[in-house]
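Protein modeling request. Please complete all fields; requests missing the sequence field cannot be processed.
Requester role: graduate student
Desired output: 3D structure, token encoding
Chains: 1
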Amino acid sequence: MRVMERTFREQLFFLVLSLSVLKGDTRYIENNEISKDELFSFFNSELKRETPEEFIYRRPLRCLDMVAVEGQFTFTAERPQLSCAVFFMAEPNEVISVDYDNVDIDCRAGDFITVFDGWVMKGEKFPSSQDHPLPLYERYVDYCDSGSLRKSVRSSQNVAMVFFRIHNAGSSFTLTVRKHINPFPCNVISQSPEGSYTMVIPQQHRNCSFSIIYPVAIDVSEFSLGHYNNFPKRAMPGCAESGDFVQLLGGSGIDTSKLLPITDLCISFTGPTHMKIGCDNTVVRMVSSGNYVSRVSFSYRVLDSQELQTIKLNNVEDFCFNN
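Delivered output (323 residues):
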């Protein structure tokens, strides 16, 4: 298990920190490459750290950072820092709140701190605009624009990010990060390379995705809709026309609207459907019309090197090696 955790951290940090953050004078995220040496410096025990409730975990914040625990995180600029980003992650059934505290930056000089509801990597956003409940412009909350009017921002899913630019040495700010239970999670990036999950949409017109940033073997054990319970298990062409279906998607990015479809399911069933998917990102995506209670259960594990080699040699089996 320790080996698998390290594999997860290497892949996650490589994906997270080899990404785009800022470019030029924009407050939105563009392209910026991070070296592998910088990437590995972020490995630590923080991902699974448990902190007693009576204590608040505190540590300095780095210009490029990953935070998976609650606490207070302070950034103090030792020199101009023009391309910084922090990625926050919680458990699948949690959302994240970020509070601005003790902010000492110069907005008039071009400094900014912006919270984004989701993640952005290489110009792609998770959740995609099709799957997020808010329009894109509402997912960005800039401290310099909102000031004291909005000092706390809460994510819609288990990931969020902050990106910032500071011109003057000595400028600083503190972020207080908390996690909150989400009774009906929708849109999740998995923290683990293996596990099981049940996604439920309770008669709501929305799309939900579970993203696994590994090549995986996945078993869909149950899929239920209110209107097809008596039909046999099978995939149907034209599932999108039904308004309620599950997609398996694969690719190298995080925007589900840009991933390639592997299969669609729009017939309820109980019993395993097993697939091995050699993509960097595998997504289980449920589309709901809101007319029914939709439910899908699945388990997954990361593919070992021999399985990946088999898939790569048999390129008919998996399209991810052909794109």
